[in-house]
């Protein structure tokens, strides 16, 4: 029987009777060395672990039961979030001993589900779609699976998901130079629980390449919820920095930073000297010191960092305990924990410095006029 349409007054009951599942098992190799010791979803973004922003959005939508599908450094998640009660949530943890892929990861949490409807999130994605609207679309169409589909200006770099006039998904297409639609898979799904039960257990399965095409082949009710909401995969340093900046500036939504938007987000314990410029949605962590005349633009500066006088840091991630010397210039770089970049050094264009590495004063210059 088709479920009734929910009004705004009872939409919270729709969310409350939906499980939230977040897949956070990846190793985050594209963000190394930041992820050498920290799972990607636990990296600080706009002053909080990235995953906490997603959990806050889930709670704001009205969902309260969350299952995390973990693998790499699984213990870190439970140590930080515990049972979720401080966030107004009930959080359970399910560990993959071997990588199971997206479909296998969803199937792996099946025994922990409480409801007949499950909303699945990719733990790498910073999104802004209306979660209640996605749930409403699912119920309105009596769907077995609903996908959040994003309209993008250039879909050629993505697999495309066309839908018919009723919103029913008609195909899953690989990347092509001539895509028939601007709709791409945004990595957020609503499943009826019985569909998850059909995924083979204990083996790697791709939900995109195996589960969804098989559902279409058998005529299952698979629908799309299409919008143009904020969306960014934080898998690369450039996207990680941009996502953090967008949160600080209010371009990307998060209940955790509501009312605190601006050009920078500075922890109260940080020390910023006179004449220093913080721009572009820069984040400055606990106990960090920024010297006079330094310029930090569109960057993520974590805890206990020292940026000396006159240094320039643009579109960078500076990990905890690192030191950037006076008049050093860093652009599009990732600096690992405890690393030291000497005075007057110059690092550009994707440079990555591993934790603990020390570059002496004037020891490295990389620029077009060297």
Automatic annotation (TrEMBL):
Keyword Transferase found: yes
EC nos: 2.7.7.13
Organism of derivation: Corynebacterium variabile
Entry-linked SUPFAM superfamilies: Nucleotide-diphospho-sugar transferases, Trimeric LpxA-like enzymes
Top-level EC class: transferase
Boundaries of every Nucleotidyl transferase domain copy: 20-247
InterPro entries: GMPPB_C, Mannose-1P_guanyltransferase, NTP_transferase_dom, Nucleotide-diphossugar_trans, Trimer_LpxA-like_sf
Key word Protein biosynthesis present: yes
Protein's name according to its UniProt entry: Nucleoside-diphosphate-sugar pyrophosphorylase involved in lipopolysaccharide biosynthesis/translation initiation factor 2B, gamma/epsilon subunits (EIF-2Bgamma/eIF-2Bepsilon)
Domain Mannose-1-phosphate guanyltransferase C-terminal stretches: 262-349
Record family assignment: Belongs to the transferase hexapeptide repeat family.
Annotated GO MF terms: mannose-1-phosphate guanylyltransferase (GTP) activity; translation initiation factor activity
Keywords for the protein's UniProt record, in alphabetical order: Initiation factor, Nucleotidyltransferase, Protein biosynthesis, Transferase
């Amino acid at each position: 029987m088709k479920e009734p349409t929910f009004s705004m007054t009872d939409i919270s009951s729709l969310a409350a009777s939906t499980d939230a599942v977040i897949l956070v098992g990846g190793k985050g190799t594209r963000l190394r060395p930041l992820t050498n010791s920290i799972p990607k979803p636990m990296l600080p973004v706009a002053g909080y672990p990235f995953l906490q922003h997603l959990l806050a959005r889930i709670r704001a939508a009205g969902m309260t039961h969350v299952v995390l599908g973990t693998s790499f450094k699984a213990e870190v998640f439970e140590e930080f979030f515990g049972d979720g009660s401080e966030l107004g949530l009930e959080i359970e943890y399910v560990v993959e001993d071997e990588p199971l892929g997206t479909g296998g990861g969803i199937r792996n949490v099946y025994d922990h589900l409480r409801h007949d409807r499950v909303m699945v999130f990719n733990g790498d994605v910073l999104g802004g779609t209306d979660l209640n609207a996605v749930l409403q679309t699912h119920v309105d169409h009596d769907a077995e699976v609903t996908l959040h589909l994003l309209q993008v200006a250039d879909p050629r770099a993505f697999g495309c998901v066309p839908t018919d006039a009723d919103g029913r998904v008609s195909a899953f297409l690989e990347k092509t130079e001539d895509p028939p639609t601007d709709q791409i898979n945004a990595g957020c799904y609503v499943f009826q629980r019985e569909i998850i039960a059909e995924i083979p257990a204990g083996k790697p399965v791709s939900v995109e390449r195996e589960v969804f095409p098989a559902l279409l082949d058998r005529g299952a009710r698979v629908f799309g919820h299409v919008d143009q909401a904020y969306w960014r995969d934080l898998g690369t340093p450039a996207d990680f920095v941009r996502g953090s900046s967008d949160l600080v500036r209010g371009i990307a939504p998060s209940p955790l930073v509501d009312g605190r938007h601006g050009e920078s987000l500075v922890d109260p314990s940080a020390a910023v000297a006179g004449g220093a410029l913080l721009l572009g949605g820069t984040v400055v962590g606990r106990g960090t010191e920024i010297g006079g005349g330094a310029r930090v633009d569109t960057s993520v500066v974590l805890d206990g960092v020292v940026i000396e006088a006159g240094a320039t840091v643009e579109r960078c991630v500076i990990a905890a305990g690192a030191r950037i010397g006076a008049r050093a210039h860093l652009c599009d770089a990732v600096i690992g924990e405890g690393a030291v970049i000497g005075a007057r050094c110059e690092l550009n264009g994707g440079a990555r410095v591993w934790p603990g590495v020390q570059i002496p004063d004037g020891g490295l210059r990389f620029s077009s006029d060297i």
